[in-house]
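Progress note, project year one: complex with flavin-adenine dinucleotide.
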Amino acid sequence: MNREDIKRLFSDVAPIVRYDEPLRHHTTWRIGGPADVFVVPNHLDQIRDAVTRAKAEGIPVFVIGRGSNLLVKDGGIRGLVIKLGDDFSALDITGETLTALAGRGMVSAANIAIRHGLSGLEFATGIPGTVGGAVTMNAGAHGSEIKDVLYRASVLDQAGDVQDVDAAQLSFGYRRSAIVENGWTVLSATFHLHEGDPAQMQERVKAWSKRRQTTQPLSMPNCGSVFRNPPGDHAARLIEAAGLKNFQIGQAAISQRHANFIVNLGQASAIDALSVIMHAKVTVREQFGVDLVPEVKVVGEDEAGG
Ligand SMILES: Cc1cc2nc3c(=O)[nH]c(=O)nc-3n(C[C@H](O)[C@H](O)[C@H](O)COP(=O)(O)OP(=O)(O)OC[C@H]3O[C@@H](n4cnc5c(N)ncnc54)[C@H](O)[C@@H]3O)c2cc1C
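Model obtained:
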């Protein structure tokens, strides 16, 4: 199938279908080339329909959350990109169990839990992705991660069937899960929380938030931590010790405020960001013998001729 055929195939699959949609509009880094076809379904049947049509034609499918852990290359993503719409944000609390649809913001789900006196998700109040992205990435902070509180996820598999998968089946690791390798789309997640004092939780969350505000460059487009912390050390410490704060290529620069953040100064391309990543990696390896591994997921294709 050529690109035009692919576009036609999905033209009626969801209320919002866009072609050559710039993915920089859908990533927190404000970087990213176009998706051939970008659909925003608002019903499970629409996701299923899109996924099964794609599978039948061998067209790749990529599910995007808030793009807060993604570096989409300048050539963009071939095939279909699915972004769960606002209709995938319902949330229910029953006893000590919170279930949220995958398009719900993780910050909002965590804050609602706190208001209901439910503890366990406070760590996620500073993680700006969706519930689906947080489960996929096993997002974590302050010594806790999704796997500590997730009970079960509902996923759409590649055959178009919905499966309820226990957390134990998700092979969680450091910022990873089996979701991507299985080609699943997370539809919802159920968390087991426990009773807590809302005032105490608010207090803790406020202190963390204050620390983030002062130590992270949150007013500029970024993707959070670019590199994983190597065992027993911090990527930020190593990059800073290598003298790389403010190091800039094109419109991408290592943040003055936090050396494990690369900020988009305005019109950064993926090549700018990747070049800074590569330079930091090589310099830290040369100076300290440590191999930094990116935490941000690099997806998509290089620009033709780039
Ligand atoms: C300022 C800032 C601070 C951050 N702080 C933290 C932090 O403290 N801890 C931390 O762990 N991360 C942090 N992050 C990174 C990021 O927010 C998390 O990794 C987040 O969980 C990604 O969610 P997302 O919805 O944006 O996913 P995306 O970035 O859009 O996607 C990430 C991966 O998840 C997949 N995915 C997304 N939704 C679905 C779905 N419904 N079904 C199947 N696959 C899906 C994508 O295909 C991709 O592989 C931070 C980012 C920023 C910008």
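The domain at 3-86 is CATH 3.30.43.10 (Uridine Diphospho-n-acetylenolpyruvylglucosamine Reductase; domain 2).
The longest strand covers residues 185-192.
No further modelling is planned for this target in the current period.
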